[in-house]
Amino acid sequence: MAPLKNKTVSFVGLGLMGGALAMGLRKQEPDKICAFDINEEVLEEALTTGVIDCGVSTPEGIREILGISDLVVLCLYPRAALAFMEDYMADFKEKAVITDITGVKTLLVEGLADKLRPDLDMIYGHPMAGSEKEGFGKADDGIFKDRNYILVPQPQNRPENLTWIKEIVKGLGFNNIVETTAKIHDQKIAFTSQLCHVIAGALVDSEEDLHITDYEGGSFGDLTRIAMINAPMWSELFICNKEALVEQIEKFEDSMAQMKAKIIAEDRKGLEEMLENIRHKRIVMEVDRQNKLNRESKS
Amino acid sequence: MAPLKNKTVSFVGLGLMGGALAMGLRKQEPDKICAFDINEEVLEEALTTGVIDCGVSTPEGIREILGISDLVVLCLYPRAALAFMEDYMADFKEKAVITDITGVKTLLVEGLADKLRPDLDMIYGHPMAGSEKEGFGKADDGIFKDRNYILVPQPQNRPENLTWIKEIVKGLGFNNIVETTAKIHDQKIAFTSQLCHVIAGALVDSEEDLHITDYEGGSFGDLTRIAMINAPMWSELFICNKEALVEQIEKFEDSMAQMKAKIIAEDRKGLEEMLENIRHKRIVMEVDRQNKLNRESKS
């Protein structure tokens, strides 16, 4: 499978995710991979290691690579992605397909709704993989194996381009492609991703003892690994998805308050029932995931 | 190193932890390993697989194995451990060493303070390892490698017995033995273990979508694996350590409320600062742990 044969792909932003995607796409044998990044050392490293074929760091360079690219992958923070599209709208190759990986979708979908050049096809996507690490130096396309990829198709997307993007995504190792709306995406992600990062952060914040790992048996490590957070990016994601995130935080706070009340009341029976229900629900969620993995690996 | 040579060891309770400890202790070549469990199938399996040499399931059986045991390992829930000690105090071999693995310490230490037979040496311990799995069938002594082991020594403990227990613990694979008081143990564990389980549970409780894993990228899985909880055991642990746990829950709630307020206010600068501090603190905590691992592996 080489869906990128004879195609030129450009990455806008070559950080942890852009870098990992470029590494993965290389295996689909594109004609050429170009990249824009403001960090010239990153471009140098990506050229040396053969991840990209050409690197640019200036507006002129951007225009040059956009003009020849069949596929452009935006790997920027949400607001920068929107600004980039507005600034360089005229510079894309005719009928180019553009995709993004931003962690919130409403901002971008609504922001571009009546601004997109009619010949361009913007296919919004979100690879559900990552790492607490940062930057091109830590990029590794192994993180995509067996992960979810969310697509947010728009009525104007050309079916053949959607199919093409899905083929590329599967080639990267993702095994479950989910299609949904921007609004649902942002609600779900507020829970699975942003709320989890808020919790991990609050947990670390609430402990003063820097030697606390002397007393840990694994749980604290598992719950707080993602607290080693890219602060500017997550601040932007949290604020861009404020409404959905605050709603999820408050649901979580309610569940926690219920459990706390049962502990304070020493309501052992109530607590056991609640924990038993939670255990059951979590197992059902796990089984749902495993079933999808098995179904995909057979198909 | 065979600190158990010519010794008889008995386990009271042969679940996930008792089973794993018995497997590990076998490698230290004791003369004999006995076990009490109410589940006869478990005893049968442990006998067949060679993890134990004799199994008993009745009070008479308990008295028999206690009478010949140099070391007794209590692997029961906290209240059951206390009740067991009270019920069988007269039946231990003279000068036996007893240890436990219960997740809260004040209850047991205070409960036994003026009840322990003077010739017995009770050395309170807590192996900081476990699994979301349950029962002897899932037991595996590999879970102890490079983990913490907390000891709560008492003034009356005999130094040679403390040294002996430490030697046995190191032989099991634990690489960091921490000594502290019952009160500090319970405070620290309220944070590293119980609070983490409350959070994981509340997170699962707060989500209705049973197909939510379609939208997850790893964080939700990492944060909620421990929500597949042994409900009776954790209910007891939460309630037995109520004061320390509620204090930790409230500290966590405060940190979360601060973060939520910054998100609502769209205070990007404040949020970035908070997340940057959290990131730094978590890295320091990680480095502290790694330094200990390195120090131990060199010694």
Description:
The structure is a homodimer of 299-residue chains. In chain A, 52% of the residues lie in helices and 13% in strands. Chain A has eleven helices and eight strands. An eight-stranded mixed sheet of chain A has the order 3-2-1-4-5-6-7-8, sandwiched between helices. In chain A, helix 4 runs parallel beside helix 5 (106-112) and helix 7 (182-205) crosses helix 10. The two termini of chain A are 15 Å apart. The mean pLDDT of chain A is 95. At the A-B interface, helix 7, helix 8, helix 9, helix 10 and helix 11 of A face helix 7, helix 8, helix 9, helix 10 and helix 11 of B.
Task: Break the fold down into its secondary structure elements and pairings.
Two copies of one chain form a homodimer.
Chain A: E1 8-12, H1 16-26, E2 32-36, H2 40-48, E3 54-56, H3 59-68, E4 71-74, H4 78-88, E5 97-100, H5 106-112, E6 121-128, E7 148-152, H6 159-171, E8 176-179, H7 182-205, H8 219-224, H9 231-240, H10 242-264, H11 268-298
Parallel strand pairs in A: 1-2, 1-4, 2-3, 4-5, 5-6, 7-8
Antiparallel strand pairs in A: 6-7
Helix pairs in contact in A: 4-5, 7-10
